[in-house]
Design a protein that fits this description.
- With 557 residues, this protein is an alpha/beta fold.
- It has 3 domains: 348 residues, TIM Barrel; 61 residues, Oligo-1,6-glucosidase, domain 2 (Alpha-Beta Complex); 78 residues, Sandwich (Immunoglobulin-like), CATH 2.60.40.
- The protein has 17 helices and 22 strands.
- The chain has an 8-stranded parallel beta sheet. Strands 16-17-18-22-20 form a 5-stranded antiparallel beta sheet.
- Strand 16 and strand 17 form a beta hairpin.
Length: 557
């Protein structure tokens, strides 16, 4: 059986372990907490759990600075706790997807410590370079976290590269021994029963040159989507990916990528990755493409990006990871919906729009119950270093506190990291102690317990969408055909295979709109598949209500 043969009808649920469920009362989510909520995830119907990194780490970058790829960080539990999670999840037909940070390691990692001690084998695991003739840095590249991308080591008389924090040293993928080490890590977790892997910033592993960036940018033209990236991923695939496991899947996080490169990464013939994340659609509310700004989202740009990626990937048998939310993005309901006036309708609309496209849907914890942005009003409430830094940068630019907090409430990553809202008890049922970050004040109204009692809740809409993907091959494997490309409010498309045609309409605004479906034939033969409003009949000239979203199906003999 071919690797991942059955993945196209599956759905992944992302857990941010620190904020999901605390079993110990110390205010930090843990592995035992996840085990305690597996029945809930089984009820939702998901197939994989992607967890953010739980490996041993100094936690300078929320676990994306790994000190040991084979050890569990004690704040999350023990290896025995993880083995219990893997076993209990499998009983419910759920598999774990691990978050692998293979572009860099923590400088606390044993490999880097041996490199610092002068061991030539391990020095070649990383990217060390001599100073320029004037003693300066090897080039002018900037770190993604700000400041130079090079750190000087006096004992060695050399600099090492860190595209991220200086405590995250980039690995040298030109060294085959590094790829072999990382392949061994993959095999270690496969033996434990892990069946999926998400690779962090994996399109930055190949560095084609170490020249100065002539435009004084950050050097990404030399390390993003370089041709050898494909060679390196294929090499890792050959060394460690199982060839006959239908449950094995991989996904790559792609930074500043292109459709063309992602076609190559996910074309099964190339043997690289199963699917990819891209983030272009989550920058449509960036004024001048700058994050710490405020503007309404550009609906036409959003549509154009969705159409480009859907059509472009299917042309080359590529595969998208579909998502609105993750640990690094503010809540989509607050961003693209209207939680004040149309909480259910807009949450369901966003779900339908993304889940019925071609690709694998990813649900981020709390999305399925309609969780919103945190609404924090004071800097002391924030934990994300990026957000705290942004406050001080914006302050130096002369912005008022009021203006800065308005931006943070819209753009901070902490919006995604508040505790999962389980019930109306203190701290939303997340912990009996003091949570590491504050809960959203609306948890007494928006929580899992309330969602499960209401058969019209956002939760049951998500559950139905997951079921539709499993029962309708036109959704899981059919073609994507865009419609209504120029409409100012509606994102519409068709999914189609030999036996089914599914028409999907999504009104992205809180006002009525007219839709002309004059070119679509046999509308009278379509039946409703899913809707967020009752009693909507399909016709050539129809009206959609605020945030109305529906799919209709035509069966062909």
């Amino acid at each position: 059986m071919k690797v991942g043969q059955d993945f196209k009808d599956k759905v992944v649920y992302q857990i941010y372990p620190r904020s999901f469920k605390d079993s110990s009362g110390n205010g930090i989510g843990d592995l035992k907490g996840i085990v305690s909520k597996l029945d809930y995830l089984q009820e939702l119907g998901i197939d994989y759990i992607w967890m953010n990194p739980i490996f041993l780490s100094p936690q300078n970058d929320n676990g994306y600075d790994v000190a040991d790829y084979r050890a569990i960080d004690p704040q999350y539990g023990t290896m025995e706790d993880l083995e219990e999670l893997i076993e209990e999840a499998k009983k419910r037909n759920i598999y774990l997807m691990f978050d692998m940070v293979f572009n860099h390691t923590s400088t606390s990692h044993e490999w880097f410590q041996k490199a610092l001690q002068g061991d030539p084998k391990y020095r070649n695991y990383y990217i060390f370079k001599e100073p320029k003739a004037d003693g300066g840095m090897p080039n002018n590249w900037q770190s993604k976290f700000g400041g130079p991308a090079w750190k000087y080591v006096p004992e060695l008389g050399q600099y090492y590269l860190h595209l991220f924090d200086e405590s995250q040293a980039d690995l040298n993928w030109e060294n085959d021994e590094v790829i072999e080490e990382l392949a061994d890590v993959i095999r270690f977790w496969l033996d434990k029963g892990v069946r999926g892997f998400r690779f962090d910033v994996i399109n930055e592993i190949a560095k084609s040159s170490f020249a100065d960036d002539p435009n004084e940018f950050d050097g990404r033209q030399y390390y993003t989507d370089q041709p050898k990236n494909h060679d390196h991923l294929h090499h890792l695939h050959q060394l460690s990916f199982p060839k006959d496991d239908p449950y094995f899947i991989t996904v790559g996080e792609m930074s500043s990528t292109t459709v063309g490169n992602c076609q190559k990464y996910t074309d099964p013939e190339n043997e690289e990755l199963t699917m990819v994340f891209n983030f272009h659609h989550l920058k449509v509310d960036y004024k001048d493409k700058q994050k710490w700004t405020l503007m309404d989202f550009d609906f036409h740009e959003l549509k154009e990006l969705f159409f480009e990626w859907q059509e472009g990937m299917q042309e080359h048998d590529g595969w998208n990871a579909l998502f609105w939310n993750c640990h690094d993005q503010p809540r989509s309901l607050s961003r693209f919906g209207d939680p004040a006036r149309y909480p259910k309708q807009s949450a369901k609309m966003l779900a339908t729009a993304i889940h019925l496209m071609q690709g694998t849907p990813y649900i981020y914890q709390g999305e399925e119950i309609g969780m919103e942005n945190a609404g924090f009003t004071d800097l002391d409430q924030y934990r994300d270093v990026e957000s705290i830094n942004a406050y001080h940068i914006l302050k130096k630019q002369g912005k008022s506190d009021e203006a800065i907090y308005a931006i943070l409430r819209e753009k901070s990553r902490d919006n995604a990291r508040t505790p999962m809202q389980w019930d109306a008890s203190d701290n939303a049922g997340f912990t009996t102690g003091t949570p590491w970050i504050g809960t959203n004040p609306n948890y007494r109204q928006v929580n899992v317990e309330e969602a499960l009692k209401d058969k019209d809740s956002v939760f049951y809409h998500y559950k139905k969408l997951i079921g539709l993907r499993k029962n309708h091959p036109a959704i899981s494997r059919g073609r994507f055909i865009p419609i209504l490309k120029e409409h100012d409010q509606v994102y519409g498309y068709i999914r189609q295979d030999e036996k089914e045609t599914i028409l999907v309409l999504n009104n992205f605004y809180g006002k009525d709109c007219a839709v002309d479906l004059g070119e679509i034939e046999e509308l009278d033969r379509f039946g409703t598949l899913i809707s967020n409003y009752p009693d909507q009949d399909l016709s050539h000239h129809m009206n959609l209500r605020p945030y109305e979203s529906a799919a209709w199906i035509l069966h062909r003999e």
